[in-house]
Amino acid sequence: MKSIALIGFMGSGKSTVGPLLAQRQDRPFFDLDTIAERLAGKTVSEVFSGESESGWRLWESRALAAVVDEESPCVLACGGGVILDANNRDILRQSFLTIYLETSEAVLIERLRRGNRRPLLMVADPEAAIVALLKARRSLYEAAAHLIVKTDHKEAVEVADEAQAAVAKLTGEQ
Ligand code: S3P
User: Fold this and answer.
1) Are 49 and 5 in contact (CB under 8 A)?
2) What are the C-alpha distances in Å from 121 to residues 5, 37, 115, 116?
3) How far apart are CA 14 and CA 169, in angstroms?
4) Is there a contact between 102 and 141 (Cβ–Cβ < 8 Å)?
Protein backbone atom coordinates (compact mmCIF):
# COMPACT_ATOMS: atom_id res chain seq x y z
CA MET A 1 0.00 0.00 0.00
CA LYS A 2 1.47 3.32 -1.08
CA SER A 3 1.52 6.52 0.92
CA ILE A 4 -0.74 9.30 -0.33
CA ALA A 5 0.83 12.66 -1.21
CA LEU A 6 -1.22 15.83 -1.50
CA ILE A 7 0.26 18.41 -3.83
CA GLY A 8 -0.99 21.80 -4.97
CA PHE A 9 -0.37 25.51 -4.75
CA MET A 10 0.06 27.34 -1.43
CA GLY A 11 -3.42 27.85 -0.02
CA SER A 12 -4.98 24.88 -1.83
CA GLY A 13 -5.83 23.25 1.50
CA LYS A 14 -3.27 20.42 1.67
CA SER A 15 -2.58 20.89 5.39
CA THR A 16 -6.29 21.06 6.27
CA VAL A 17 -7.47 18.26 4.01
CA GLY A 18 -4.46 16.03 4.82
CA PRO A 19 -5.38 15.18 8.43
CA LEU A 20 -9.02 14.57 7.41
CA LEU A 21 -7.96 12.19 4.65
CA ALA A 22 -5.49 10.48 7.02
CA GLN A 23 -8.38 9.86 9.44
CA ARG A 24 -10.46 8.33 6.65
CA GLN A 25 -7.51 6.20 5.57
CA ASP A 26 -6.60 5.32 9.18
CA ARG A 27 -3.00 6.37 8.58
CA PRO A 28 -0.71 8.94 10.20
CA PHE A 29 -0.52 12.45 8.72
CA PHE A 30 2.76 14.22 8.04
CA ASP A 31 3.59 17.65 6.69
CA LEU A 32 6.63 17.86 4.41
CA ASP A 33 7.42 21.47 5.38
CA THR A 34 7.58 20.41 9.04
CA ILE A 35 9.86 17.45 8.25
CA ALA A 36 12.14 19.67 6.13
CA GLU A 37 12.24 22.31 8.89
CA ARG A 38 13.20 19.62 11.40
CA LEU A 39 16.00 18.33 9.15
CA ALA A 40 17.26 21.89 8.52
CA GLY A 41 16.92 22.88 12.18
CA LYS A 42 15.34 26.14 10.95
CA THR A 43 11.96 27.45 9.86
CA VAL A 44 11.04 27.83 6.18
CA SER A 45 11.51 31.60 6.46
CA GLU A 46 14.92 31.23 8.11
CA VAL A 47 16.08 28.87 5.36
CA PHE A 48 14.78 31.20 2.62
CA SER A 49 16.58 34.20 4.13
CA GLY A 50 19.80 32.35 5.07
CA GLU A 51 20.20 29.83 2.26
CA SER A 52 17.84 31.26 -0.39
CA GLU A 53 15.07 29.36 -2.15
CA SER A 54 17.48 26.81 -3.63
CA GLY A 55 18.59 25.88 -0.10
CA TRP A 56 14.98 25.25 0.86
CA ARG A 57 14.51 23.02 -2.23
CA LEU A 58 17.36 20.78 -1.07
CA TRP A 59 15.86 20.35 2.41
CA GLU A 60 12.48 19.70 0.86
CA SER A 61 13.90 16.99 -1.44
CA ARG A 62 15.79 15.37 1.45
CA ALA A 63 12.59 15.36 3.49
CA LEU A 64 10.66 13.68 0.65
CA ALA A 65 13.36 11.01 0.34
CA ALA A 66 13.13 10.42 4.11
CA VAL A 67 9.36 9.86 3.90
CA VAL A 68 9.86 7.37 1.03
CA ASP A 69 12.19 5.40 3.31
CA GLU A 70 9.43 5.09 5.93
CA GLU A 71 7.77 1.71 5.73
CA SER A 72 4.29 2.40 7.01
CA PRO A 73 1.92 4.25 4.66
CA CYS A 74 0.93 7.77 5.56
CA VAL A 75 -0.81 10.83 4.15
CA LEU A 76 1.73 13.55 3.34
CA ALA A 77 0.93 17.21 2.64
CA CYS A 78 3.72 18.56 0.43
CA GLY A 79 4.92 22.15 0.14
CA GLY A 80 3.68 23.89 -2.99
CA GLY A 81 7.07 23.86 -4.68
CA VAL A 82 7.92 20.17 -4.25
CA ILE A 83 7.08 19.52 -7.91
CA LEU A 84 9.75 21.91 -9.21
CA ASP A 85 12.37 19.17 -8.95
CA ALA A 86 12.12 16.49 -11.67
CA ASN A 87 13.37 13.78 -9.33
CA ASN A 88 10.69 14.71 -6.78
CA ARG A 89 8.07 14.44 -9.51
CA ASP A 90 9.35 10.94 -10.35
CA ILE A 91 9.18 9.98 -6.68
CA LEU A 92 5.62 11.31 -6.41
CA ARG A 93 4.59 9.27 -9.48
CA GLN A 94 6.37 6.09 -8.48
CA SER A 95 6.39 5.84 -4.70
CA PHE A 96 3.14 7.62 -3.79
CA LEU A 97 -0.44 7.84 -4.84
CA THR A 98 -0.40 11.55 -5.56
CA ILE A 99 -3.43 13.83 -5.49
CA TYR A 100 -3.35 17.35 -6.90
CA LEU A 101 -5.68 19.66 -5.01
CA GLU A 102 -6.53 22.00 -7.85
CA THR A 103 -7.62 25.51 -6.93
CA SER A 104 -8.33 28.30 -9.39
CA GLU A 105 -6.20 31.42 -9.62
CA ALA A 106 -9.05 33.66 -8.44
CA VAL A 107 -9.74 31.55 -5.33
CA LEU A 108 -6.04 31.31 -4.48
CA ILE A 109 -5.65 35.08 -4.74
CA GLU A 110 -8.64 35.52 -2.43
CA ARG A 111 -7.41 32.90 0.08
CA LEU A 112 -3.81 34.13 0.13
CA ARG A 113 -4.69 37.80 0.31
CA ARG A 114 -4.70 38.16 4.06
CA GLY A 115 -1.98 37.60 6.65
CA ASN A 116 0.39 35.73 4.45
CA ARG A 117 3.80 34.90 5.85
CA ARG A 118 5.01 32.63 3.06
CA PRO A 119 8.43 33.85 1.83
CA LEU A 120 7.54 33.64 -1.88
CA LEU A 121 4.54 35.90 -1.35
CA MET A 122 6.25 38.51 0.81
CA VAL A 123 6.86 40.68 -2.24
CA ALA A 124 5.60 44.04 -3.48
CA ASP A 125 2.86 42.48 -5.62
CA PRO A 126 1.81 39.10 -4.16
CA GLU A 127 -1.07 38.79 -6.60
CA ALA A 128 1.30 39.01 -9.60
CA ALA A 129 3.57 36.45 -7.88
CA ILE A 130 0.65 34.02 -7.49
CA VAL A 131 -0.33 34.42 -11.15
CA ALA A 132 3.26 33.86 -12.38
CA LEU A 133 4.00 30.93 -10.05
CA LEU A 134 0.74 29.19 -10.87
CA LYS A 135 1.33 29.62 -14.60
CA ALA A 136 4.79 28.08 -14.27
CA ARG A 137 3.66 25.23 -12.02
CA ARG A 138 0.24 24.11 -13.17
CA SER A 139 1.51 21.56 -15.71
CA LEU A 140 4.03 20.23 -13.17
CA TYR A 141 1.27 19.52 -10.61
CA GLU A 142 -0.67 17.75 -13.35
CA ALA A 143 2.38 15.74 -14.43
CA ALA A 144 3.12 14.54 -10.89
CA ALA A 145 -0.45 13.59 -9.95
CA HIS A 146 -2.42 10.37 -10.34
CA LEU A 147 -5.65 12.09 -9.32
CA ILE A 148 -6.99 15.64 -9.39
CA VAL A 149 -9.55 16.94 -6.91
CA LYS A 150 -10.95 20.44 -7.43
CA THR A 151 -11.25 22.49 -4.27
CA ASP A 152 -12.94 25.77 -5.28
CA HIS A 153 -15.84 26.73 -3.00
CA LYS A 154 -15.72 23.42 -1.12
CA GLU A 155 -15.29 22.78 2.59
CA ALA A 156 -12.21 20.76 3.60
CA VAL A 157 -14.39 17.77 4.63
CA GLU A 158 -15.96 17.72 1.19
CA VAL A 159 -12.54 17.72 -0.48
CA ALA A 160 -11.36 14.94 1.87
CA ASP A 161 -14.48 12.87 1.07
CA GLU A 162 -13.91 13.33 -2.66
CA ALA A 163 -10.24 12.42 -2.33
CA GLN A 164 -11.17 9.34 -0.30
CA ALA A 165 -13.69 8.24 -2.95
CA ALA A 166 -11.22 8.85 -5.78
CA VAL A 167 -8.53 6.82 -4.01
CA ALA A 168 -10.99 3.97 -3.40
CA LYS A 169 -12.01 4.00 -7.05
CA LEU A 170 -8.43 4.04 -8.27
CA THR A 171 -7.22 1.28 -5.97
CA GLY A 172 -10.35 -0.83 -6.38
CA GLU A 173 -11.05 -0.77 -2.65
CA GLN A 174 -14.42 0.22 -1.21
C1 S3P B 1 6.29 26.95 -1.06
C2 S3P B 1 5.22 26.52 -0.34
C3 S3P B 1 5.24 26.42 1.13
C4 S3P B 1 6.67 26.21 1.63
C5 S3P B 1 7.57 27.27 1.09
C6 S3P B 1 7.60 27.28 -0.44
C7 S3P B 1 6.17 27.04 -2.54
O8 S3P B 1 4.41 25.34 1.55
O9 S3P B 1 7.15 24.94 1.26
O10 S3P B 1 7.13 28.51 1.58
O11 S3P B 1 7.22 27.13 -3.22
O12 S3P B 1 5.03 26.98 -3.06
P13 S3P B 1 2.79 25.38 1.50
O14 S3P B 1 2.38 25.01 0.10
O15 S3P B 1 2.41 24.34 2.49
O16 S3P B 1 2.38 26.76 1.87
Assistant:
1) no
2) 24, 19, 10, 7
3) 21
4) yes
d(C-alpha 116, C-alpha 127), whole Å: 12
pLDDT digits (tens, 9 = 90+) for 15-52: 999 999 999 999 999 999 999 999 999 999 999 999 99
Q: List ligand 1's pocket residues with C-beta within 6 A.
A: 10, 14-15, 33, 44, 79-81, 118-120
**Which value, in Å, is the radius of gyration of the alpha carbons in the chain?**
15
pLDDT digits (tens, 9 = 90+) for 86-129: 999 999 999 999 999 999 999 999 999 876 789 999 999 999 99
- Residue 118 CA, closest ligand 1 atom number: 10
Q: Minimal CA–CA distance to 85: which of 108, 59, 67?
A: 59
Mean pLDDT of the chain: 96
Instruction: Using most ligand atoms within 8 A of CB, pick from 7, 9, 12, 33 the residue to mutate for ligand 1.
Output: 33
CA 134, CA 124: separation in Å to the nearest integer?
A: 17
Which residues share a beta bridge with 7? 100
Render pLDDT for 61-72 as a digit per residue (tens, 0 to 9): 999 999 998 879
